[in-house]
Design brief:
8-stranded mixed β-sheet, 13 helices, 17% strand, single chain, 464 residues, 2 domains, 16 strands, alpha/beta
Length: 464
């Protein structure tokens, strides 16, 4: 998600797409699988992009700017369609008529290029009860809204491939049901201030399950996490997002779609590479900036290898010095990401954690079999990361960028007394994420276990 209190950053994400002179009859929903250029020739639609702009919050102005970036592209006869569901707030941006409801647009090129005015036509969406000439306020934190939008896009704009972009605030993992809209930090996407709600990670997973998407992309902070990827591991081929914070300006959509429509094959890898390329150029001067292309079919294997490594380290920790050696790595040496206002969730880079923990295996245990188990599982985990994250970019030059949650912080290197219930296996929290439910050797347990790494680091009692 994009975050206001982030290091060097202001919140925000932006995901907006344009579709311009590619069109059927403007404003209607009677689309087949062909797109037409201005001369009337037709080509089979390769992609339908669904941009979910949850901007009923302090990112409203950034959403309008990204929408305009989408319209600045000359799509010509490109065989794509771009739909943007834009939910606005009533306080943060007064332009374009200052409407504050929820509207669905089909992106069209602005002949004037980049301007502050929305030019694209509104369209009806029966699945959401939206009509282009009426005002309707939707709760974009409701997973049913997202699910219904995807259904509409596939029915009215059939294509060979479908991509979903989630635009807005994002805070990483989220589990559990909470009826109150909490201030930062929370773990979710699609923050809707008017409804005082957000979409949890399990809810997002249910919204996209079985939809036949090819690509899911988060233009948010804290998206490239194992918890998120594992939740949607069966729901797309490619997941693209950032491990840490990004600025409120989000992605450069003009550069993104100018790059993509210039490709010959319009392949999944073309899209992933284009997102990564525009991001690396847009954020070239920003410390801690990262973007990852995550192969979701590889996530099950990666999860298993991460589980094995965590278990090997957990079982090797038998005393306070060993525990403290690992904690020192996590809090002082391993690459980490967190908001700079506290309390704040802490995430660490899995590849960096694996390398640096394996390097101190002799400080963790004197048992050579346990040392060998740590090294062997570390090597297998690194191999799995190479398959799951074959391409990524980071300002610091590192690779295989994928994070995982450790614990909430009360200050820099000051852990909270406990994890949130939604991150504890066997807790009373409702609707925990799939990662927490399935994690045998990483996530903490309601009754601490010897083979859970977070239990051994934060909840285990060692005999002197």
């Amino acid at each position: 998600m994009k975050n206001i209190t982030l290091l060097f950053l202001v919140f925000a994400l932006t995901v907006s797409c344009q579709f311009g002179i590619i069109n059927d009859i403007q404003g209607t929903n009677n689309h087949d699988d062909l797109v037409k250029d201005s001369q009337g020739s037709s080509e089979k639609r390769k992609w339908t992009f669904i941009i979910y702009m949850a901007a009923d919050n302090d990112l409203e102005a950034a959403a309008i700017a990204d929408f305009n970036e989408l319209e600045a592209v000359n799509y010509g006869a490109a065989p794509i369609s771009i739909l943007v569901l834009l939910d606005r707030h009533n306080s943060y941006d007064m332009t374009n008529g200052n409407w504050s409801d929820t509207r669905l647009f089909e992106i069209k090129s602005d002949p004037a290029g980049l301007t502050p005015t929305i030019r694209s036509p509104r369209i009806d969406c029966p699945e959401l009860g939206l009509q282009k000439n009426t005002e309707t306020e939707l709760n974009t934190s409701d997973p049913l809204v997202l699910s219904s939008l995807i259904n509409f896009a596939k029915r009215a704009y059939p294509a060979e491939q479908y991509a979903l972009f989630i635009w807005g605030h994002g805070t990483g993992w989220r589990g559990g049901v909470n009826n109150e809209f909490l201030p930062e930090p929370v773990k979710a996407v699609a923050f809707d201030d008017s409804q005082r709600q957000y979409m949890s990670l399990p809810s997002f997973g249910r919204a996209v399950a079985g939809k036949g998407l090819s690509v899911i992309a988060f233009d948010t902070c804290y998206g490239a996490l194992l918890e998120v990827a594992y939740q949607i591991r069966n729901d797309a081929r490619l997941f693209v997002s950032s491990e840490g914070e990004i600025m409120s300006t989000g992605w450069d959509y003009t550069a993104l779609f100018n790059g993509f429509i210039g490709k010959k094959n319009y392949s999944i890898s073309d899209l992933g590479n284009t997102i990564q390329n525009q991001f690396s150029e847009h954020y070239a001067s920003l410390n801690n900036a990262t973007i990852s292309q995550i192969q979701l079919p590889q996530i099950k294997n990666l999860f298993s290898r991460f589980n094995d490594f965590s278990g090997a380290v957990a079982e090797a920790i038998a005393d306070e010095p060993a525990k403290n050696a690992v904690l020192k790595q996590i809090f002082h040496n391993v690459e980490s990401y967190f908001f700079t206002s506290f309390p704040s969730d802490m995430y660490i880079d899995i590849f960096d954690f694996t390398k640096k923990t394996a390097a101190i295996r002799e400080l963790i245990t004197t048992d050579t079999d346990q040392q060998e188990a740590i090294l062997e599982t570390a090597n297998k985990l690194e191999q799995a990361l190479s398959l799951a994250v074959p391409s990524s970019w980071a300002k610091n030059g590192t690779s295989k960028k994928l994070g995982v949650h450790v614990i909430p912080l009360q200050g820099i290197a000051v852990p909270s007394a406990r994890h949130e219930l939604a991150y504890i296996r066997g807790s009373m929290a409702i609707d925990k994420s799939a990662f927490v439910e399935d994690s045998e050797h990483w996530a903490p347990n309601a009754v601490p276990k010897n083979d859970s790494l977070l239990d051994k680091l934060f909840y285990w009692t060692y005999l002197q």
